[in-house]
Write a structure and sequence with these properties.
The chain is α/β, with parallel strands linked by helices. Strand 3, helix 4 and strand 4 form a beta-alpha-beta unit.
Length: 246
């Protein structure tokens, strides 16, 4: 997925010397997206498939195996929260969508890449989770459940691939300010989206998460970073955030 965090990760890994291939879901304006990225010098395939099935992405990525031989690192960054309804009022269509993108999308792409990652002799899978996958908060039900699901998948993969040359990591960001994440969550309501960050001096930036991914990907092969939780200093927990009163 290529929102603010995805783009930052690609730029950072490209700078680090990786050959980067990125895919994006059907919600993007592909022509604009490809134009924006091309100047950065990496290879791109755009998916126009259904994000839940990922067929077009997987097919496009399969070409990279043919073209580049080995695949060393897979970053699963697709995600997103929709709505802030309490559980008893929740729209199950929104919940299904969040589960499809956060959990099934990650599983589907991981299945497609696992053989190449194992064959590389030193593969790395980095899933972008969330602090929502590690504790709960009101109004977060569907997103919290999906990110807990992703966390469970990540931990299960590590058990099942034990003994094979593939490391499995989760980066769990707290409050990251990317315009798109909040706008999606509040169905495009910019004022509501901005209110999430109101009075917070310095939320994390996409680049902070890219730093974490880069560090994990460049450790010696025998080092597996199971989980990295990254929050801004203003956020002590999912529900305790220091805000200025002005």
């Amino acid at each position: 997925g290529m929102g603010g965090i995805g783009t930052a990760i690609c730029q950072r890994l490209h700078k680090e010397g990786f050959t980067v291939v990125a895919g994006c879901g059907p919600t993007r304006d592909h022509a604009k997206w490809i134009a924006e990225q091309k100047e950065l010098g990496y290879t791109f395939y755009a998916s126009v498939g259904n994000v839940g099935s990922w067929d077009a992405t997987v097919e496009a990525f399969a070409k990279t195996k043919a073209e580049h031989g080995t695949i060393d690192v897979l970053v699963n960054n697709a995600g997103g929260a929709i709505g802030v309804d309490p559980v008893i009022d929740a729209d199950l269509i929104d919940w299904r969508r969040m589960y499809e993108v956060n959990v099934l999308g990650t599983v589907s792409v991981t299945q497609a890449f696992a053989p190449a990652l194992i064959a590389s002799g030193a593969g790395t899978i980095i899933n972008i989770g969330s602090t929502a996958g590690h504790s709960t908060y009101e109004g977060g039900g569907g997103y919290v459940a999906a990110k807990h699901g992703l966390r469970a998948v990540t931990e299960t993969l590590r058990l099942e691939l034990n003994g094979l040359p593939v490391r499995i990591s989760e980066v769990a960001p707290g409050m990251v300010h990317t315009e798109e994440f909040s706008l999606n969550r509040f169905s495009g309501d910019a004022d509501l989206a901005d209110s999430v960050y109101a009075g917070v001096d310095a939320p994390l930036l996409a680049e902070d998460i890219a730093d974490a991914v880069d560090w994990i990907a460049t450790r010696p092969d025998h080092v597996n970073i199971d989980l990295m939780v990254v929050r801004p200093i203003a956020q002590a927990s999912n529900w305790k955030v220091a805000r200025n009163s002005d």
